[in-house]
Each structure stands twice: as structure tokens, then as C-alpha cells.
Amino acid sequence: MLKALVGTRSSQQMRAFPTVSSSPQHAVIPAQSFFHPTVNPQDTKPDRPIGYGTFGVVWSVTDPRDGKLVALKKMPNVFQNLVSSKRVYREIKMLCFFKHENVLSALDLLQPQNLETFQEIYVITELMQSDLHKIIVSPQPLSTDHIKVFLYQILRGLKYLHSSNILHRDIKPGNLLVNSNCVLKICDFGLARVAETNSKKHMTLEVVTQYYRAPELLMGAKHYSYAVDIWSVGCIFAELLSRRILFQAQSPIQQLELITDLLGTPTRADMKYACEGAIKHINSRPHKMASLCKLYLLSSHASPEAVHLLTRMLQFNPCCLTHALPSLSDILKLWLITELHTFIHEHCRRSRRVPLCINPQSAAFTSFTSSTVAHPSELPPSPHQWE
Question: What pLDDT, on a 0 to 100 scale, did the predictor assign at position 308?
Fold first, then answer.
């Protein structure tokens, strides 16, 4: 079901997703490939700040071409160092590459005043009225159909990303935008990267907000896979059912302990990718039996089908999740309403128009360009050093 809905890009196009070399000369962004200086651009009109991503601030702005409100993300200090440049390059290429109804993509890039000296990049995307975090904490009731619609779209968008060899690495309710028609889009690719196929190459552990962080990350795994995103979706699914965070701990170690309290003590095979320090800590605690029956107490929406789907996503062993999305689609067929496919296609549209630029004389833009990431996405502290 999901496979048929994630788009029409061929596997060759998926594999062709651009990467960035580690050498400085290959990290330079050719500005002319992104901007069109031969076209006379129009000025955008900033309205108000609406959010703060992992590495940027987002404003609501008016598109002068049609008067519609769109979202404008400011990426500051993009050439501060090589790491920053590579991250921004990756994110922009992803935003320009993505073409899926449940994944946020770039509608435009603002033309800088000087292509030789600019330090900020401004990306225009579709404006979404809310996000899943705001909906979950609101007093607004959520029906079973609401939960189905949201979960369906999260998995649909994630299937597209994983088919494109992309790990999001920060799936959480605040990064799932929702509009007034209940259309959901995955956003904020500041931590996203192309999947690493070399299992011997170490990957950073400073990813994923703690409440949604997979066990292998908490246990210091040097390498990880798409499973970290699927685990995050499982946590969000439980949060939609109960309207509260499933694993809400004060530290990474306590986070791991809460997980074992629910799923039981993992086996040695489950901890294949864990560091020895984490394994010793787990084995030093009293043996726990799985308490999955507690999932039925999340809410009245926790039907046997919903709990079955949830347990498929909350697996201690990442190997059980690496190829989970295709099998999850079979379960979704049993649980999700058939009208969803039509609903999604009726409410998701996109278009492209002439370029826009910054007006340095605009008072609103003076405020916008001076804004910083005052309230950044709350990234977790560095994982506990087990050794």
C-alpha cells in the first residue's frame, strides 16, 4: 500500500541523491546553480516568526506574486566552517530534491544581494498552520480517524525518505507540520543525512530528541540505520493515543530504563550494537519481563490492531525494524480506512513561480535578518559515556 503511494521516482534516481565530499573544494556551493540573477525578482514581505528549527528560524511571509502566506526559513552563518557548509548543502539539496505530499520541500530560495559575500540562505516552503506537538497538547479531542490519518501520513512520508536513502534522525511531533485539512508534512532536515552503508564507519550519536531516541542510540551504538526513525514514529503513535509522552525521562540512562520497564530486559542479540558499558548496566539491573499489556491502557483508541502495530515499531533489536516499513503496510491495510489515499491526493498540491529576493530597506526584513535561533529545537545532551 505504502510502496504504491510514495511517488514515481525510479530506483536509479533514488540512488543518484547527491552527497558531499569531505574535501573543502567539493563543499563549495555554486550559487548560480540555486539562483537565477538574470530574472528580475520581487521582494517578499515578512509577517511574524512562527517557529525555530534545529539550525534556523522560520517566519511567515507574504508572497508578492499572489499575496499568499508562505514560510521562510533563515539559515544563518552557513559558511562559518566546513561542517556547517556541508550540513546546509545537504539540507538544501534535500529540500529541492523532495517531491512528496507528506514531506516538506522547497518552493523557492531567496536571491541574496551579493552572490559573492552572502552568509545567510533563505528558503521558502509551504506554510502549515500547526504541528503535531501543538495538537497533542491542545484540549482538542482526537478521534480514532484523526490518529489513523496522522500515522498514515507519517509512515507514508518516512517510506519516501527511506526509499531515497535518507535518515531523518529527528522525527518528533514538533517536526511534523499539519495544516487545517489535517495534511501532514515531515520537516526540519537539519540532522538528516544519506544512509551510511559502511557498518564500520562511525556515526554521530547526538541525534534525535531524547524522548524519541531509539535504544541503540541510548546504548552507544557506533552505527545505526533507518530503525532509529521507525522507533521515533512508534513513540509518537503512543503519544497520539495517550496524549502524553511515552518515555519521558530526565537523562539518557533513565530513558533506557523506562524502555526496559515496558519491553523487558533485552537479550544479548538485542544488544548486538551496544557498547560494553551499556550492556553491563542493563545486566546489573533486575531482570524485567515485557509489560506490553500496558499499551492497552494508553486510551480507548488502543484497539488490538493499534497495539499490534505499535509493538511492531517498538522493537529493542534494530534489525527487526530496518526493513519494517514494507511489512507495516500490510498491517496498515487492516487498520486504516481506504478513503485515506483519496483524501491525501485531494488536499496536497504544489506549484512553482518566479524567483524572490530580499529587500534590505524593508523594516520587517531588518527584524527578520537580525533574528537568531533564540529557541532552537531542544536537542538532547550528548549520550552518556558508558566507557
Answer: 84
